[in-house]
Write a structure and sequence with these properties.
With about 375 residues, chain A is of the alpha/beta class. Chain A has 14 helices and 12 strands. In chain A, strands 1, 2, 3, 4, 5, 6 and 12 form a 7-stranded mixed sheet that branches. In chain A, helix 1 crosses helix 2, helix 8 crosses helix 11 and helix 11 packs across helix 12. By secondary structure, chain B is an alpha/beta fold. In chain B, the strands form 2 sheets. A 3-stranded parallel sheet of chain B has the order 2-3-4. Classes of the chains: A alpha/beta (about 375), B alpha/beta (about 150). Chains A and B meet through helix 8 and helix 11 of A and helix 1, helix 4 and helix 5 of B. Bound molecules: adenosine-5'-triphosphate and magnesium ion. Adenosine-5'-triphosphate binds next to loops of chain A.
């Protein structure tokens, strides 16, 4: 019999598709005890999007959104708990990633908001937040942080593995079977963000379910080549990216001089996500016999998964569901794990991937 | 224009050190001493490809043992690929005959992009047997470059 060791991970990614909350029990390996997804009201979504691009008066707006998000995060946690038999005393802490509104590793700056004081106050649970900036203070990219978690829970001594998270952006973690080899992890570029923005513009939908709309069009190879020529795709890791780089205005600018139907553009954007991922793997992963495990919302996009399989015909490509971690909750689970590391006084960054000067305990603690 | 390829070439051969602090776009593996070549197609026209075939042929003439020779790879994913369709064969007979002969002699290796084929409604059966297909042309070029292929 073991006592429970439960942490709550709270994640709100770049897609703004919702706030993911998951209670994770680490007493035996890792089990997902309960999950909840909290809708972000449209007005708040708009304000967050506004904050991702430079605007006048943004500090006041940031203050407002910081508070509203803090409250919404707390509500999400309270809803999760009320839906289960868990009591708050069983929960060691909440790990809250926060909402990224700016990520500028080139200036050593990244900002996630959603006031953790409010989360602790409204839930009565100790909250850990602000995970990225300590890594940056140690000259790291502050991202990606999930590879350390991937390594802790998914390293397989018998097989090279690549974890691929397709959220707003896409990031990979390469875990060589041989533990003495370095972990490779970085953002490969856009995940769903451009496809989401494009279908929203043309059909007022939040995403292209199973890539059906993309499949009704054809990839334009010339546009694809142009998009793939972006310097970001050719930089060596460590590197990370966000909405600052990949957004609708950027895309609109890239489309100048092309006369494509909206669905052909969507097909090209799906291909861009798949091709930039595979190209990143081929360029920076020193293994050919790896297994690819996909998580994040993009892993539910059948057309995208099918394309990844076609572009990697000699590798096993599947979702992390296969290894017992539901692909929808991997990111939330990672922040539950990071909160646990912080409270236990253990380091949370993998310096191979963030490029930081050393391993650091990540996060600030807001006591219950 | 093939800005992607051009920029790759620019990064490789540029001596302008003040350019953006980019690393070599694709790490080159130094394992193969013999250079291996990939055709750089700029105009996407059949005549350009035919000219490159002739150059490949001339290069191969200087090689003693063609069996130990790595053929020059042509990844086709633009207008030029239409020349290989059966329906256009008459018009491009010289090009196709040359391609077939060079393929047979292990001088070139033509690979047509399946994504381009889908977008242009080209069925595999419309293409000669001596050409190969790859899932995505631009990605194939990145892979070859990574394996140490250089543009010729
Ligand atoms: N069935 C599906 N078909 C197509 N796309 C899907 C499907 N299910 C989810 N998605 C995509 O996944 C996105 C949400 O993914 P996810 O929650 O992993 O991203 P995120 O919140 O941005 O996280 P992060 O960027 O931190 O990884 C949606 O916006 C949508 O584009
Ligand atoms: Mg999400």
């Amino acid at each position: 019999m073991s006592t429970s060791d439960i942490y709550i991970g709270l994640m709100s990614g770049t897609s703004l598709d919702g706030i993911d909350v998951a209670a994770i029990d680490f007493s035996q390996y890792l089990s997902i005890v309960a999950t909840h997804s909290e809708t972000i009201p449209d007005t708040l979504k708009k304000e967050i999007l506004q904050l991702t691009q430079p605007n006048p008066d943004e500090i006041d707006l940031m203050g407002k959104v910081d508070i509203e998000l803090g409250k919404l995060f707390a509500k999400a946690v309270n809803t999760l708990i009320s839906q289960t038999k868990l009591s708050k005393t069983q929960i060691q802490a909440i790990g809250s990633h926060g909402q990224t509104i700016r990520h500028r590793p080139e200036f050593g700056f990244t900002l996630q908001i959603g006031d953790a004081n409010i989360i602790a106050e409204h839930t009565g649970i100790t909250t850990v937040a602000d995970f990225r900036r300590r890594d940056m203070a140690a000259s790291g990219q502050g991202a990606p942080l999930v590879p350390a978690f991937h390594k802790a829970v998914l390293h397989n001594p018998a097989k090279d593995r690549i974890l691929l998270n397709i959220g707003g952006m896409a990031n990979i973690t390469y875990l060589p079977a041989d533990n003495s080899k370095i972990t490779v992890g970085f953002d490969t570029g856009p995940g769903n963000v451009l496809m989401d923005a494009w279908i929203h513009k043309h059909k007022a939908l939040s995403y292209d379910h199973n890539g059906k709309w993309a499949q009704s069009g054809n990839c334009d190879i010339k546009l694809l080549e142009k998009l793939l020529s972006l310097p970001y795709f050719h930089e060596a890791p460590p590197k990370s990216t966000g909405r600052e780089q990949f957004h609708l205005d950027w895309l609109t600018h890239q489309l100048e001089g092309f006369n494509l139907s909206p669905e052909d553009t969507q097909a090209t954007l799906l291909e861009l996500t798949a091709a930039s991922i595979v190209s990143a793997i081929q360029s920076h992963v020193a293994s050919e016999s790896f297994e690819l495990l996909v998580c994040g919302g993009g892993s539910r996009n059948n057309a995208l998964m099918q394309r990844l399989k076609q572009l990697l015909p000699y590798n096993d490509v599947s979702t992390t569901d296969k290894v017992g971690i539901n692909a929808d909750w991997m990111e939330a689970a990672a922040f539950a794990w990071l909160a646990k590391r912080c409270l236990e006084g253990k380091t949370g960054n993998n310096t191979d991937v963030t490029g930081a000067d050393g391993e650091r305990i990540l996060g600030a603690i807001y006591q219950a | 224009m093939r800005t992607f390829l051009i920029s790759l070439v620019f990064f490789l051969f540029s001596s302008v050190a003040s350019a953006a602090p980019l690393q070599s776009p694709v790490p080159l593996s130094p394992e193969h001493e013999e250079p291996r070549y990939l055709a750089l197609i700029k105009n996407n026209s059949p005549s350009e490809v035919e000219m490159l075939f002739h150059r490949a042929s001339m290069l191969a003439e200087r090689v003693d043992n063609l069996n130990a020779y790595e053929p020059i790879v042509f990844v086709l994913h633009g207008e030029e690929a239409h020349a290989f369709r059966h329906r256009n064969m008459e018009q491009h007979k010289a090009l196709l005959d040359l391609a077939e002969r060079l393929e047979k002699n292990n001088v070139i290796d033509v690979r047509i992009c399946e994504t381009w084929m889908r977008a242009n409604d080209v069925d595999r059966s419309e293409l000669p047997e001596f050409v190969d297909t790859v899932p995505l042309g631009p990605l194939e070029e990145v892979r070859l470059r990574k394996d140490g292929y250089i543009y010729f």
